[in-house]
Write a structure and sequence with these properties.
Elements lengths: L6 E5 L7 H9 L4 E3 L4 H4 L15 H17 L5 E4 L6 H12 L3 E5 L4 H11 L6 H14 L8 H10 L6 H6 L2
Parallel strand pairs: 1-3, 1-4, 2-3
Helix pairs in contact: 3-4, 6-7
């Protein structure tokens, strides 16, 4: 596969906004979607259909997913879609740096659901938006995750408060 076709997508967005749906479309038939939360289906509990989250295993889950990412890179899979929040943090930098060092192009991708397209504009201008509106959105998104990841509204609201609309791959690689 030529280097121009080796791509990693880092999904960005809040829970319940359609990241996983978009990730599957980006991966299509030739790629792979790698999500840390898959650990809590595949490696924890007895039922692979059950999401058995344990906060004490979160670091292990992150390392598990990063190792799967490294294996996909070494097997020259493309596209590789990392389905998580992907902000300015060390974990995201590790994915991006590993891919770039091995000749992959790294791109940020977001959900394309109508509710995310609306919410991302509100997040961009959050200093001008009434906090109650974000509380309502957080409740709505928490409800949409009720049958899967069960992300509490309080957690989503915290992520909204710290959301950065101006994140770039370059900023991720530089750690700022």
């Amino acid at each position: 596969m030529s280097d121009s076709r080796k791509v990693v997508y880092l999904m960005r967005g809040l829970p319940g906004c359609g990241k996983s749906h978009r990730a599957r479309r980006l991966a299509a038939d030739t790629g792979v979607v790698l999500e840390t939360d898959q650990y809590f289906y595949a490696e924890v509990g007895d039922d692979p259909a059950s999401y058995d989250f344990r906060s004490d295993l979160l670091e292990r889950a992150r390392e598990w997913n990063l190792e799967r990412f490294r294996q996909a890179i070494e097997q020259v899979v493309s596209p590789i879609v990392v389905d998580r929040g992907n902000g300015l943090n060390e974990e995201t930098r590790r994915y991006a740096a590993y891919a770039v060092a091995r000749g992959y192009r790294v791109e940020l991708a977001e959900p394309d659901s109508p509710w995310w397209l609306e919410l991302r504009v509100l997040l961009k201008y959050k200093q001008h938006v009434d906090g109650q509106l974000f509380d309502t959105w957080a409740e709505r998104l928490a409800e949409s995750t009720r049958h899967g990841h069960r992300v509490p509204a309080k957690t989503i609201r915290h992520w909204m408060a710290s959301w950065r609309h101006d994140v770039t791959v370059e900023a991720i690689l530089k750690g700022r």
